[in-house]
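TA notes, week 10

Several of you asked for a full example with nothing omitted. So below is the full record: structure tokens for the whole chain, then the designed sequence directly under it. When grading your own attempts, check the secondary structure regions first.
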């Protein structure tokens, strides 16, 4: 758990003393349930304005008071975030084959993206695939409940890794665009980028290490019978040794109840279907922002679907949406608290928006994967780009006082430490509950080092 340092809290409060301090926790990792949170955002500001002015603008001129839409548009003007030259986004293929390969089998995604699929069309490849499947079947049949035996039998051996390296080496000449390859494979930030002439070999070594780590974790948490059943379901499905191994890793994580990172599919396309259907017809130029990002606040028990602090954040964001600041609400948060919780923050927020507030499903985009405030911002870029939202304009980030202060004053160093990069080109605090941000295309690169939050 992370808590806001006292100095940061004082800075946040002194920056806008007209706002009521909200006791909700700084992020989805905190422990406050927000049940004692005071009103913040649109309601609190509107009440204060009403007490002071009643029916005039408060200037003594007798002019009519600003409407709520006019007041919020003036208060939350995106001008501080506008950049002279937004970074260029290179859209990744959106077809299911590429999306699946990118998440589960990065070498196959290189083949699809760079046109070097023949690296898997050789007798050597077929022999390696057959040997991997045979060793896996032997482990399931002979290891029983011996977890160390299962780990060894299901993981890549040194000999198999060497064979895979030899297999892909001739395709190195087909890798001509380093950045595209890094985006396609999820080569992590923070690691030294190898020269292009050895990139595929480095990717093989990294992929084998990451898959073995995920396999080890899953075997340690899953029942051996569940492992056998999961592997039986995907037997013979993967057409390449890389895709086969990626499917095995995913099946093992699913058997362990650790499929949070891919439970909802690429871009959460099923949950976002209603929004995807209308996004192409939205005139985004008519709005100050393309979307309003609402980071989740996870409950601390397994019986509470939605933390009251999360409800508070939603209500504040909806006031902005109703004022026409953006056509879309992006709710962000995965299965976070407690461990293996059945409740997904974004899904529960979406349900509240539709069932309790009457917001149309076509106005809601969900990110059901983010587990931290860092990934709320990073995943916003991935999801919005994936569903077709223009990325050269700012989004509005709406939360509560403490989390917003953490985002504005302390999140960049934490992103550098945990993600290896800062997922925005510009970010500015506008008031105690809102910030504007222009996101960066660096967020497109998957980081598969964390099997729960790639």
């Amino acid at each position: 758990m992370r808590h806001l340092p006292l100095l940061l809290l004082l800075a946040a409060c002194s920056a806008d003393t007209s706002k009521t301090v909200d006791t909700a926790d700084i992020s989805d990792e905190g422990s406050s349930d927000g049940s004692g949170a005071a009103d913040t955002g649109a309601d609190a500001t509107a009440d204060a304005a009403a007490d002071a002015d009643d029916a005039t603008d408060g200037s003594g001129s007798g002019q009519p008071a600003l409407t709520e839409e006019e007041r919020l548009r003036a208060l939350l003007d995106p001008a501080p975030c506008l950049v002279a030259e937004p970074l260029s986004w290179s859209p990744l293929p959106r077809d299911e084959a590429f999306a699946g390969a990118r998440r589960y089998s990065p070498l196959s995604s290189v083949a699809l993206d760079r046109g070097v699929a023949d690296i898997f069309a050789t007798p050597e490849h077929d022999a390696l695939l057959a040997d991997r499947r045979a060793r896996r079947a032997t482990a399931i049949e002979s290891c029983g409940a011996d977890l160390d035996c299962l780990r060894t039998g299901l993981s890549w051996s040194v000999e198999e890794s060497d064979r895979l390296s030899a297999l892909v080496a001739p395709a190195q000449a087909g890798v001509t665009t380093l950045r595209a390859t890094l985006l396609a494979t999820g080569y992590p930030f923070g690691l030294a980028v190898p020269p292009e002439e050895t990139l595929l070999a480095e990717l093989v070594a990294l992929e084998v290490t990451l898959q073995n780590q995920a396999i080890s974790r899953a075997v340690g948490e899953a029942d051996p019978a569940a492992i056998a059943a999961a592997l039986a379901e995907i037997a013979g499905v993967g057409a390449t040794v890389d895709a086969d191994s990626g499917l095995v890793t995913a099946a093992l994580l699913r058997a362990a109840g650790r499929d949070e990172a891919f439970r909802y599919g690429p871009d959460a396309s099923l949950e976002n279907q209603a929004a995807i259907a209308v996004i192409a017809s939205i005139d985004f130029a008519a709005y100050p922002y393309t979307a309003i990002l609402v980071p989740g606040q996870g409950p601390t028990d397994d019986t509470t679907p939605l933390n009251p602090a999360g409800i508070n954040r939603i209500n504040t964001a909806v006031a902005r949406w109703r004022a026409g600041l953006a056509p879309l609400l992006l709710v962000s948060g995965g299965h976070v608290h407690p461990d293996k919780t059945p409740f997904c923050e974004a899904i529960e927020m979406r349900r509240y928006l539709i069932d309790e507030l009457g917001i149309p499903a076509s106005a809601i985009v969900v990110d059901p994967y983010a587990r931290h405030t860092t990934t709320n911002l990073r995943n916003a870029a991935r999801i919005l780009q994936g569903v077709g939202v223009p990325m050269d304009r700012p989004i509005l980030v709406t939360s509560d006082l403490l989390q917003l202060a953490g985002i504005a004053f302390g999140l960049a160093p934490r992103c550098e430490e945990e993600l290896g990069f800062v997922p925005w080109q510009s970010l500015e605090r506008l008031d105690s509950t809102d910030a504007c941000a222009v996101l960066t295309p660096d967020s497109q690169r998957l980081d598969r080092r964390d099997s729960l939050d790639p």
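The domain at 72-92+266-444 is CATH 3.40.50.620 (Rossmann fold). Use that as a sanity check on your answer.
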